[in-house]
Amino acid sequence: MIAKIEQLLKEVEAMHASNAEELEALRIKYLSKKGAINNLMADFRNVAAEQKKVVGMKLNELKTIAQDKINALKEQFENQDNGCDGVDLTRSAYPVELGTRHPLSIVKNEIIDIFARLGFSIAEGPEIEDDWHVFSALNFAEDHPARDMQDTFFIESHPDILLRTHTSSVQTRVMEASQPPIRIICPGRVYRNEAISYRAHCFFHQVEALYVDKEVSFTDLKQVLLLFAKEMFGADTKIRLRPSYFPFTEPSAEMDISCNICGGKGCPFCKHTGWVEILGCGMVDPNVLDANGIDSKIYSGYALGMGIERITNLKYQVKDLRMFSENDTRFLKEFEAAY
Ligand SMILES: [Zn+2]
């Protein structure tokens, strides 16, 4: 009896099936009612009483091993059947969500589009810059506060290297590498050493425009500004220029537009003045032209720059600047229809 059990055990352990039919044949041969193991069970009553315990244990062991082996082979076939390790190919697919364009990209592209129609081409430059291209070549005085660590991110071990604080550095790079006529627009990210709050961030985005040629005048600048404001905020938009100061332009001005939220009547957004500030501009300081290899006796130019976040705020009234960099899809999806 023991010898028979051992023989069957060897057979069971060597069981092999290459398809479901072979497996079923094995199950019938060993585990069915008239199978080999049940036949042994039937012989069990003839075993001598003193051997019953040992033989019984062996028989049960054989039956368990045979059952486990059949189950293991069966599982193997089931996984092979769909070829995907248990993945249910009949289940419907997860929906794929389409992304939307970021509001800052939408507005940046709108600004670029307006200037492109006026003949401006896009210029780009590095975000990690040196002092010359960000400050010195733009007529910043040695002791200008923008050069202070409080306002600008410098590389500690190399104080000449910094994160650009404005995209004007692209203007200097274009001027030093080419001669007028220059008509460029420079969109990009800039960095300031600011505490992050709802109205300030350590990085934001600018678009600057530069036009240098013979006989460029303030009139040209004003006309471009008016056209830009009307294209961007609607044909009824009015502009006004206030005198200002920037190191790189002379004269300099800041431009306000009639508040597009209240139509100029006065609201909390425009602090009840009817006007909102949107950009800085001016005639390129002759010192800047000369520092960048352009003869200021022959050429003149204008420059203007604006924050993309500021323009986006005016168009969409986003109250918290931080939302632009949080990548919350609930916020981003609100601009789905905007492009
Ligand atoms: Zn208003």
From TrEMBL:
Organism in which the protein naturally occurs: Bacteroides faecichinchillae
Q: Under what name is this protein listed?
A: Phenylalanine--tRNA ligase alpha subunit
Residue ranges occupied by any Aminoacyl-transfer RNA synthetases class-II family profile domain in the UniProt entry: 107-334
Q: Where found, per UniProt?
A: Cytoplasm
What are the BP-aspect GO terms? phenylalanyl-tRNA aminoacylation
Main localisation, per the record?
A: cytoplasm
The protein's matches in PROSITE patterns, at most eight in alphabetical order, are given as: AA_TRNA_LIGASE_II
Q: Which PANTHER family match?
A: PHENYLALANINE--TRNA LIGASE, MITOCHONDRIAL, PHENYLALANYL-TRNA SYNTHETASE
